[in-house]
Structure formats: structure tokens, C-alpha cells
């Protein structure tokens, strides 16, 4: 029972309290890049969720069953980035075969996930926190859901921003950052959920 | 391409500054800027990684097959990131703990890949090394500016030395995540309004010229 409590806390913390974008600043590039439309934001979120959950588990297995017995923990970064790149390529091929419509919908966002630092970030954090396999999976899914939540909300706000009158030098990036900052303040409100 | 050293310096530090002009490497720019000391260490790490990655890519540019160059570049960058990580862990364990996963994440910093791809791939080694160093410096300068604002207002200190005496009430928000977004937004806003004023007359005259020649 206590174990499930801990799982629940990990899930809650990775979705809301330690949201990848809002409090850890991981995955800002796609966050700013693909948040112009709500529909693309949802597609990106789905792709990231899928890759992140898989990547968490596989990097975990690679770390504890390959790197640790060989005492090559220092190769962690190199191994993880290769795993993620391969995984993204693999996922791309599978989706293309199984569901061409989904592949079309995700389009260019799939290969872009390789450069999403949230995926590598969650892999490194899992190892640092010393989670077991199931906790790793939960943390990966939770982190990705948090990412999706933030990017969809942000896209919703940005769609409305395009219609408003903004001073010239403030257009584009600065106003997006201020919006993200305000959202980050809102997410701070969740801090009290977990002691 | 005839790029000189002074050209590269100007471009990397101001005209094409990676952070404020090209909006690259934002993740780490936001994450490590709560204290000036953290930022400097991170900046030096990025500078060295970029410079040596560019040097290596440039040295190997005629050997690497074009098709697999992304993979090779990633491997080169990853090796240098691991070096930085190991050195930090060995000599500055406290700093390594403070920076947490962000050192390992230097590898996904788009600045390094961008410079390798855009410059080192088609330029001689020494020039590429210098270009990487300067791009890293441009990144570090912007980050340090953000960090100075955040540490000064958040703790009243710079590099741990007290600057703003007892009368100062620290702004707690500056220590937390949202302020990073705000400070970077304001810096880019200022830079944009300064440069747009400067560029505006040039653009207009250029437009007129086009019109004249069009007639």
C-alpha cells in the first residue's frame, strides 16, 4: 500500500509539481516551436508521451543491465542519446507501417523528438533518483503528460494572442516568454500538494 | 567563405547571438541562471564543448560521409560532454550536484549542433575552433546577464558577496522558475527594440532602392 502511495506521489509530482516545462525547463524548444495551434500541440504531446514512456524503460534496462555490470556508468550520456535516437527512428518506422494516418498527422514532429531534452532529461533523472522499473515508467508517463498539458494550454493562449494588439518589439518570442512565465507562476500553486 | 576572426566575433556576440537572436539553447539558459556561479561554470562547459566539437568536426570534415554526419557529430559532442561531466564530478562535486542533469543535457543544446553543421562543416579547423569558442561566449554572456539580475534581486548578492545590504527585501520569485522566463523575455524585448530602431531606416532606404530599381 505504501508503495502505491509513493507511485501516486511520483505521478502527481511529475505531472503538476515538477512539471517538465514549467519548473524544470526541459523541452522548451518544441514547447515554443509547435505551440501555434492546439491540434498540432496535441499531436506533439501524444508522440512525446509514447517515446518518453518507452525511452524511460529502455534506458533503465540499459543502465542497470549493460552499463552497470560493465562499470561504464560514465558512458551514460552517450548511450542514452544513441538509444533515444534509435528508438525515435524505430517508432517512426513502426507507426508508418501500422497506421499511416497517424504517421501523417505527426509529420515532422516525430524525428524532432530526438532533440527534445525532456526525453533525455527524464532518463537521466530516473537514474539519479534511483527509481525502480515501475516507478521509472510512471515517472516517464507522468512527465510526458505534464508536457502535453503545458503545451496544449500554452497553444490555447497563443491562438488568442495572435488576434491581440501587441507592441512591435514585443511580438513573437518576448510575449510568448511572458505568457510562459505567468503559466509557470500558476504552476507554482501546485507546490503545496506535496511536502 | 571568407570569414575573418573579427567578423566571427561580432556575429557570435551580437549580430547572430545564439540565445537572444536565434533563440537556441533556451532550456539551459533558463534552468541554471538562478546563481551567477552556476551559470559561469555551465557557460564554460558549453564554451569548451562547442569549441572542441567544432574543431573535431572540422578536422574530420573531409572524412565523414555526408549521410551519417549527424550521427558522427552527435557522437563527437557526446564525448566532450562526458569529459566535462567527469571533470566537474571529480574536481567540483558540489557544483556538479547543483547543476544536476543539465550538464548531461548540454548534448541536446542546439547551439553546438548548429555551429558544427553551419560553420565547422565547411571551414578550416582553427577558424571553426574560434567560432565555437565565440558562440559559447555569446551564450555565456547572455546567461550571465540573466543570472546577475536574478541573483541580485533574489538574494541581494552577486557570486555570494552581499551587494544590497540589509534594507533589501529579496524577491523570492526571482529564485524560482517563473522569473527566468520574465528576465529573458525582457532582455530580448530590449534588444529587439534597440535593434529595430537601428535597422528601421536601413530597411526603409533599402525598400526605396528596390522600388527605384523596380521602376
Plain-language structure description:
The complex is a heterodimer of chains A (about 200) and B (about 220). Chain A is mostly helical. Chain A is built from nine helices and no strands. The mean pLDDT of chain A is about 85. In chain B, β1 (about 155-160) and β2 (about 160) form a beta hairpin. In chain B, α1 packs parallel to α7 (about 125-155) and α3 runs parallel beside α6. With about 220 residues, chain B is mostly helical. The model of chain B is unreliable at about 205-215 (pLDDT under 50). The longest helix of chain B has about 40 residues, at about 175-215. Chain B has one domain (about 5-215). Chain B has helices spanning about 5-15, 25-30, 35-60, 70-90, 95-100, 110-120, 125-155, 170-175, 175-215; strands spanning about 155-160, 160. The interface of A and B includes residues 115, 177, 187 and 188 of A.
Short characterization:
In chain A, 74% of the residues lie in helices and 0% in strands. Chain A has 195 residues and is mainly α.
- Quickly give the structural class of chain A: mainly alpha
How far apart are the first and last residues' alpha carbons of chain B, in Å?
Answer: 33 Å
Overall form of chain A: globular
Apparent shape of chain B: globular
Spatial order of strands in the largest sheet of chain B: 1-2
Give me some keywords for this one.
heterodimer, A: 195 residues, globular, B: mainly alpha
Which secondary structure elements does this structure contain, and how are they paired or packed?
The complex is a heterodimer of chains A (195) and B (215).
Chain A lengths: L1 H16 L10 H6 L4 H30 L8 H23 L1 H7 L2 H4 L4 H13 L3 H29 L11 H16 L7
Helix pairs in contact in A: 1-8, 3-4, 3-7, 3-8, 4-5, 4-7, 7-8, 8-9
Chain B lengths: L4 H11 L10 H6 L4 H24 L9 H23 L1 H7 L10 H9 L6 H31 L1 E2 L2 E2 L9 H4 L1 H38 L1
Antiparallel strand pairs in B: 1-2
Helix pairs in contact in B: 1-7, 3-4, 3-6, 3-7, 4-5, 4-6, 6-7
Amino acid at each position: 500500500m505504501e508503495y502505491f502511495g509513493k507511485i501516486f506521489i511520483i505521478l502527481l509530482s511529475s505531472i503538476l509539481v515538477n512539471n517538465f516545462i514549467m519548473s524544470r525547463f526541459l523541452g522548451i524548444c518544441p514547447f515554443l516551436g509547435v505551440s501555434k495551434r492546439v491540434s498540432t500541440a496535441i499531436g506533439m504531446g501524444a508522440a512525446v508521451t509514447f517515446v518518453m514512456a518507452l525511452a524511460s524503460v529502455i534506458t533503465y534496462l540499459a543502465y542497470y543491465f549493460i552499463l552497470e555490470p560493465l562499470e561504464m556508468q560514465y558512458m551514460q550520456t552517450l548511450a542514452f542519446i544513441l538509444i533515444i535516437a534509435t528508438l525515435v527512428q524505430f517508432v517512426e518506422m513502426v507507426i508508418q507501417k501500422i497506421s499511416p494516418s497517424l504517421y501523417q498527422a505527426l509529420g515532422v514532429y516525430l524525428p524532432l523528438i530526438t532533440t527534445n531534452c525532456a526525453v533525455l532529461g527524464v532518463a537521466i533523472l530516473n537514474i539519479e533518483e534511483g527509481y525502480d522499473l515501475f516507478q521509472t515508467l510512471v515517472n516517464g508517463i507522468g512527465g510526458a503528460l505534464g508536457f502535453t498539458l503545458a503545451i496544449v494550454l500554452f497553444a490555447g493562449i497563443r491562438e488568442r494572442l495572435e488576434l491581440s494588439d501587441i507592441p512591435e518589439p514585443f511580438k513573437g518570442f518576448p510575449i510568448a516568454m511572458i505568457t510562459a512565465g505567468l503559466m509557470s507562476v500558476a504552476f507554482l500553486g501546485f507546490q503545496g500538494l506535496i511536502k | 567563405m571568407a570569414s575573418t576572426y573579427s567578423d566571427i566575433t561580432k556575429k557570435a556576440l551580437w549580430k547572430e547571438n545564439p540565445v537572444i537572436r536565434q533563440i537556441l539553447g533556451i532550456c539551459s539558459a533558463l534552468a541554471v541562471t538562478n546563481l551567477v556561479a552556476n551559470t559561469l561554470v555551465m557557460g564554460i562547459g558549453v564554451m569548451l564543448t562547442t569549441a572542441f566539437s567544432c574543431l573535431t568536426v572540422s578536422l574530420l570534415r573531409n572524412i565523414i560521409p555526408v549521410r551519417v554526419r549527424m550521427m558522427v557529430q552527435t557522437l563527437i559532442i557526446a564525448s566532450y560532454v562526458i569529459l566535462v561531466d567527469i571533470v566537474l564530478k571529480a574536481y567540483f562535486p558540489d557544483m556538479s550536484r547543483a547543476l544536476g542533469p543539465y550538464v548531461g543535457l548540454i548534448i541536446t543544446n542546439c547551439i553546438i549542433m548548429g555551429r558544427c553543421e553551419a560553420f565547422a562543416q565547411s571551414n578550416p579547423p582553427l577558424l571553426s575552433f574560434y567560432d565555437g569558442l565565440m558562440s559559447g561566449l555569446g551564450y555565456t554572456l547572455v546567461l550571465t546577464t540573466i543570472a546577475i539580475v536574478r541573483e541580485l534581486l533574489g538574494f541581494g548578492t552577486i557570486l555570494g558577496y552581499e551587494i544590497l545590504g540589509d534594507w533589501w527585501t529579496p524577491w523570492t520569485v526571482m529564485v524560482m522558475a517563473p522569473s527566468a522566463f520574465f528576465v529573458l523575455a525582457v532582455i530580448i524585448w530590449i534588444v529587439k527594440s534597440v535593434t529595430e530602431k537601428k535597422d528601421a531606416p536601413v530597411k526603409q532606404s533599402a525598400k526605396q532602392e528596390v522600388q527605384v530599381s523596380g521602376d
